[in-house]
Predict the 3D structure of the following.
Amino acid sequence: MEMVKREGLVIAIAIFALTLPFTTWYRFYKIPVNVAVIETPMYLLTMGFPILIGLGLLYTNLWLGMLVIYSTLNVITRPNTLNMQSVEWFSYGCLMFEIVRLYVTDRMIYYIKIGFAFVGILESVYAIHQILGYDIIWFGWHKAFYYVHGTLGNPNYLAVFQVICSSVSPLCLSWFMLIGIILSKSYLGIMGFVIIMTVRLQNFWVTVYVSLIAFWVTIADLIDRFFFQHSFLWKFSMTERLAILWLGMSDVIRNAKWFGFGLGGWFIRSQELQSKSGLLKSFVEFYAQMHNEFAQFYYESGIVGLVILCGLLFKFRRSLIKAPVVGAILTSLGMFPFHLVAIAIPLILALGTTVRERKEINA
């Protein structure tokens, strides 16, 4: 059985290596972005590659292989290059997860944890530089010292990244990630860190003290935002996201509740939906993501996709209470970590190491 799993994964990796140059060339040089491509048989051929990867994954992980195949078939009649790109990234992400899950050993885990600790501490140090008014990468010396976003360009992205790092790093080094989270002033990041440390320490009172320290700084910022410099953005941020969530759920339940609109469907339809509903007139920005991975997955995959996803979660049910999985779930409720490459790759790596099968050191 183990040999069958490895052979299936080798087949999937080989398909990935052979098809990536072709699909990239075809999508970027033969098809203009956002243009219907159903008139060419090459579209169907390109969409067939993720199906082959899914067939390879069926040998290693039945539910994951089914999810890749279903997601590909679900968009094969939707003639848009954004659907193609979404399916390719999804299938490659699933393949990366399986590679890590089946091949990472305990010795590799040590270096992975050190790597997460290193980049997490580096982000916190960079956040300290930004709060002091110096930004090496983005602005140099600047007056907007209250805007801390690390190397990721957004405070919430920084907080989510630090939460993921804190869930994997050695416990003694995870506390350094709290510096970056506090300076980012992200409430989602604070709550995520507190819950993750509760899971890791299994000590409620220690995390209570940490949360009080973290929220003391955050509450001060909350008062500042509400009464002074960011009052408009803060008061309407959650209202906007709840309205977007309601808009998306209403649309999919009314029009495509069983199969959704296909991967990439929200980005394709959202601007028109927001324009027709009048939300773009009042919102500060166009919401290209729903800020909730589970809701967006339902929007794009429907009830059938959710059933397959539940089967996959049930397969790894014993790992659902582990820190990286808890961190992924928490950040997915208020952000879109799987849609940001800089966050999705380390998150997939963290999840793969959490549910890994290969335990021997000298394998």
Summary: Residues 230-235 have pLDDT under 50 and may be disordered. The two ends are 17 Å apart (CA to CA). The chain has 16 helices and two strands.
